Amino acid sequence: MESSETRSIPLSVLDAMEKVSDEDITAYLCAVQLDGFSVRGIIFGDRTGRFRDGATVRTSTVIGAEMVSGYVVLETLNSRYVICDFSPVSELFRPGQPLH
Fold first, then answer.
1. How does pLDDT run across 46-69, given as a tens digit for each residue?
2. Domain range spanning residue 32?
3. Taking a C-beta distance cutoff of 8 angstroms, is the pair 73, 83 a contact?
4. Within a 10 A sphere around the Cβ of 26, how many other Cβ atoms?
């Protein structure tokens, strides 16, 4: 039987947690959008305890990225985030923005 806590975590996050569970991973992000040199997303499994599951966060400047077990892992100065999935809404498609 699943706990209510497990049911509230998206399947994409649960899959990423199973496949990428390195001790140096800070948290898992879903519905990610690019935001300049940072990303915004919904955070789960924050090992620092700063953010509750389901909070919307913006990372500090991304300084590196790598693929781990099929997932993008982004690195900031002090954190490493697993990108579970991207938001279907992109900054490129804001109303009034030309598409080139």
1. 999 999 999 999 999 999 999 999
2. 6-87
3. yes
4. 22
With contact defined as beta carbons under 8 Å apart, do 28 and 16 qualify?
yes
Residue type at position 46: D
Q: Give this prediction's pTM.
A: 0.82
Q: Does the residue 56 lie in any domain?
A: yes
Report helix, strand or coil for 18.
Answer: helix
Burial per residue of 64-97, b for 16 or more beta-carbon CB atoms within 10 angstroms, e otherwise: eeeeeeebbbbbbeebbbbbbbbeeeeeeeeeee
Asked if residue 62 belongs to a domain, the reply is yes
Tokens of 77: 């100065």
Report if residue 94 sits inside a domain: no
